[in-house]
Amino acid sequence: MPKVLVSDKLSPRAVDVFKGRGIAVDVKTGLSPDELTAIIGDYDGLAIRSATKVTADVLAAASNLKVVGRAGIGVDNVDIAAATQRGVVVMNTPFGNAITTAEHAIAMMFALARQIPQANASTHAGKWEKNRFMGVELTGKTLGVIGCGNIGSIVAERALGLRMRVIAFDPYLSPERAVDLGVEKVDLDDLIARSDFITLHTPLTEKTRGILNAEAIARMKPGVRLINCARGGLIDEAALKDALESGHVAGAALDVFAEEPARDNPLFGLDTVVCTPHLGASTTEAQENVALQVAEQISDFLLTGAVANALNMPAVTAEEAPRLRPYMKLCEQLGSFAGQITESGLKSVRIEYQGDVAGLNTRPLTATVLQGLLSPLLESVNMVSAPVVARERGIEIKETRSEHCPNYHSLIRLEVTTERQTRSVEGSLFGGTLPRIVRINDIPVEAELAPNMLYSINEDKPGFIGSLGTTLGDSGVNIASFHLGRSDAGGQALCLVQVDGPLPAETVDAVSALPHVVRAKALRFS
Ligand SMILES: NC(=O)C1=CN([C@@H]2O[C@H](COP(=O)(O)OP(=O)(O)OC[C@H]3O[C@@H](n4cnc5c(N)ncnc54)[C@H](O)[C@@H]3O)[C@@H](O)[C@H]2O)C=CC1
Ligand SMILES: O=C(O)CCC(=O)C(=O)O
To answer: Could you tell me which residue ranges the D-isomer specific 2-hydroxyacid dehydrogenase catalytic domain spans (predicted)?
Structure first.
């Protein structure tokens, strides 16, 4: 009988589900990392919220563990790369607490506008300070929503019901979806300059960390109020403190903090700050939703092998798996390549399967392309949710198959159209198993994608390769392999350089500044 550990406070309904499905379950909350490491080897499944940290050390001790289920959305407390490496499936419940978290953001906005927590404390203290707590009305005010996915779009809908004007910054929000929601799609600078209230609903990624830093805060309207119910780290807390103390920011309502549990934070004690201890998802309804869902998903997986909402594993049958596996890797790389070089909203995606691959079950392949494409921007996207997420964002997905494939056994071509341009990337399997990029924007190339790559587009002029090599060498960056392609002599050229380690931003800037370089970018692949 499989055995599951519930190591965070989950609704008791989860335990009922496990027992009902014939799975042994232990509930042990508040374990230290050492205590968890000591017992994790006994379990096949682990059900968590945000308190348990599933680190590489915990996973190393988890000799029987097959699945980690997160009752919630964010999986920043799970080392997914380490789990993947150890073959542990990581699942989440992407929608179960979205309404509740959006409601918390709205509650925080009201709390800020009317200083309800401060007035409550003062009234309880018998002070009756009627003149101290002058509020502001929400009606007619501009709410800037940064990140208009599941939660952000619910916040936007609720705010429109409150007669606010809603503007949204989200590179993946299509103009059509913005119109459907009734929000104005704007760029970040515009949002920062125009908003009376700003609410954050993005995952914490390398692109969003410090999205509201000192410089962004300085450009906000005097008297702006900020709400963060997404992740600590999106706002620079020290810069926010300065702006609150100077009065430039009138107030901030924070559910999440750079360090959690937050016991000693620079913002604590400021009269203009309203805090809750990561309560965004804490309602009976949301906790039942996510607990039931995660228990069902873990049970299904342990008992039948069915995979739902996995962040690191494709949904395929046991028979299909061996044939699809190398194509999955290729598809993920094609998607990830296109996703990392895409800067503006996606309109359409076209995937062409040519040759042998056209005869396979291409649904998981298309889902893998979309997962790779969307992953640089969406935290919780997985193979199961990627097609739904893409559709919800109004991205048109076209898939074509043809047995005709003149130059390769199989070829997969991905074409991505954004608001600004169309790009394409093509790949094949060499030797039947090794993914290779064979064409980028119709320029032939032959490249293996490795964890750390430099991608550059340049004019095909003498001297470029030498100056690139010198620049990398001067930065102490070792080149592992070098792949070149060009449209025609003297025309547009590109290169993909595999390097031994993450590329420092200054090195990429130095390459971008070289003569004849049109664009250079560091790319990461798993
Ligand atoms: N306080 C709490 O208890 C809870 C917090 N959360 C957090 O809320 C966040 C959002 O959750 P969902 O809406 O479900 O996720 P989602 O994936 O549906 O939406 C995130 C949105 O952020 C956008 N985005 C990504 N990078 C961006 C960037 N650089 N600039 C602007 N927008 C960007 C994406 O395009 C996407 O539309 C997650 O970080 C999650 O962990 C979620 C549930 C509860
Ligand atoms: O489980 C919780 O209380 C936190 C929820 C959360 O942050 C999430 O789902 O991302």
So the answer is: 4-312
Tokens 């599941």, residue? 150
206 and 147 in a single domain? The answer is yes
On whether both 333 and 391 belong to a single domain, the answer is: yes
The CATH number of residue 473's host domain is 3.30.70.260
d(CA 440, CA 284): 50
Interatomic CA distance for residues 453 and 455, integer angstroms: 6
Whether residues 471 and 371 share a domain: the answer is no
What type of residue sits at position 234? Answer: L
Same domain, 253 and 354: no
Q: Looking at ligand 1, which atom is closest to the CA of residue 100?
A: 44
- What is the tally of structural domains in the chain? 4
**Cα–Cα dist 277/254, whole Å:** 8
Of 395, 420, 436, the position where a domain reaches its end is: 436
Instruction: State which H helix or E strand residue 243 sits in.
Output: helix 237-246
Residues 253 and 269 in one domain: yes
> What are the φ/ψ torsions at residue 524 (nearest 5 degrees)?
-120, 140
Ligand nearest to the CA of 227: 1
Distance 274 CA to ligand 2 centre (A): 19
Q: Would 309 be classed as within a structural domain?
A: no
Same domain, 327 and 413: yes
Same domain, yes or no: 41 and 123: no
Give yes or no for residue 97 CB within 6 A of ligand 1. Answer: yes
For residue 150, report the distance from its CA to the centre of ligand 1, in Å: 7
Residue-level pLDDT, tens digit, the chain, 526 residues: 999 999 999 999 999 999 999 999 999 999 999 999 999 999 999 999 999 999 999 999 999 999 999 999 999 899 987 887 676 889 999 999 999 999 999 999 999 999 999 999 999 999 999 999 999 999 999 999 999 999 999 999 999 999 999 999 999 899 999 999 999 999 999 999 999 999 999 999 888 999 999 999 999 999 999 999 999 999 999 999 999 999 999 999 999 999 999 999 999 999 999 999 999 999 999 999 999 999 999 998 888 767 788 887 765 555 666 788 899 899 999 999 999 988 778 899 999 999 999 999 888 899 899 989 998 877 667 665 687 778 888 999 999 999 999 889 999 999 999 988 899 999 999 998 999 999 999 999 999 999 999 999 999 988 888 999 999 999 999 999 999 999 888 888 999 999 999 999 999 999 999 999 999 999 999 8
Specify if 310 maps to a domain: no
Q: Helix-strand-coil percent breakdown of the chain, rounded to 5?
A: 35, 25, 40
Q: What is the pTM assigned to this prediction?
A: 0.72
- Domain with 341 in it: what CATH number? 3.30.1330.90
From the CB of 511, is ligand 1 less than 6 Å away?
Answer: no
Residue 362 and residue 421 share a domain: yes
Class of residue 137 by CB neighbours under 10 A (exposed 0-12, middle 13-18, buried 19+): exposed
- Please give the distance, rounded to the nearest whole angstrom, from the Cα atom of residue 200 to the centre of ligand 1: 8
Taking the CA of residue 204 as reference, the ligand 1 atom at the shortest distance is: 39
133: domain CATH number is: 3.40.50.720
Of 247, 261, 387, nearest to 331 by C-alpha is 387
Show the domain range for 249: 98-275
Q: How far apart are CA 301 and CA 280, in angstroms?
A: 28
